[in-house]
Design goal:
Elements (H helix, E strand, L loop, with lengths): L1 H26 L6 E4 L8 H12 L4 E9 L4 E9 L4 E9 L2 H6 L6 E7 L5 E5 L13 E5 L5 H16 L13 H17 L6 H10 L4 H18 L1
Parallel strand pairs: 6-7
Antiparallel strand pairs: 1-2, 2-3, 3-4, 4-5, 5-6
């Protein structure tokens, strides 16, 4: 009887450890993760992608292209757009988990994410993504989760959050469609630094990523020009 109890305890303990390890794999990004452009399209819900795409393109959105994040423990597929009028990137995504990952709470339902990036290297993501677990995100990656709202309802809520963030200091960058993949890579690199520092990433870590990708310089140059003009007027 005692042997049976011991075996049960061992089985339960191993099972619990297995679940913890697998959940960590879903919430943390591996240090070898990279962004790949123009991947082969897997079996995704193309009807959901096309429905959202129709709304974006009919409102002067610019389609940029597809990408996947390589070396995650689950397949994923993303399609990016640029809305110049609202100065945001829109990404339609779908994760493709296996049976165990579904059980642990990773959904395969397509979702929308709206992105803005700030001059301190941080970002704001407003998303309809849903998971049953808490994502392990850096404080430099703000995430607001909404119910299944139309794209432009999410954008309006997103812009309200931008105003609140800018009131505290960081300024939203003027985004450019040709830098889209750089900005998405920036997010991956911030996640990797967050993991490698065990959550103790610093402002200088984020600034280093921005310099490596040559991002945010346009805002810095714009501020310097404004300061120079003000100095000239004073003289």
């Amino acid at each position: 009887m005692l042997l049976v109890i011991v075996l049960l305890v061992i089985i339960i303990g191993v099972g619990y450890l297995f679940i913890i390890i697998k959940k960590n794999e879903l919430t943390e990004i591996p240090e070898i993760a990279t962004l790949k452009e123009k991947p082969i399209m897997p079996a995704i819900d193309t009807s959901a992608f096309l429905s959202i795409e129709k709304d974006v393109l009919s409102n002067e959105g610019e389609k940029i292209g597809d990408f996947t994040i390589e070396d995650l423990t689950y397949s994923n597929y993303h399609r990016g757009y640029f809305m110049k009028e609202h100065n945001v990137f829109i990404v339609i995504s779908q994760n493709i988990p296996n049976v165990i990952q579904k059980y642990l709470g990773l959904f395969d339902v397509p979702y929308i994410s709206i992105y803005s990036i700030f001059d301190d290297g941080s970002d704001l993501e407003s998303t309809t993504r849903k998971n049953k677990f808490q994502e392990n995100k850096s404080t430099y990656r703000r995430v607001e989760i909404y119910n299944d709202l139309p794209v432009f309802s999410i954008i309006e809520k997103h812009k309200i959050r931008i105003d609140l963030i800018e009131a505290k200091g960081p300024t939203a960058l003027d985004l450019q469609s040709d830098a889209f993949f750089k900005y998405m890579t920036r997010g991956i690199k911030v996640d990797i630094v967050h993991k490698s520092t065990k959550g103790y990433e610093t402002k200088s870590d984020i600034e280093k990523i921005m310099r490596q990708l040559d991002l945010g310089q346009e805002k810095k140059e714009e501020k310097e020009d404004m300061n120079n003009n003000q100095n000239e007027e004073t003289i």
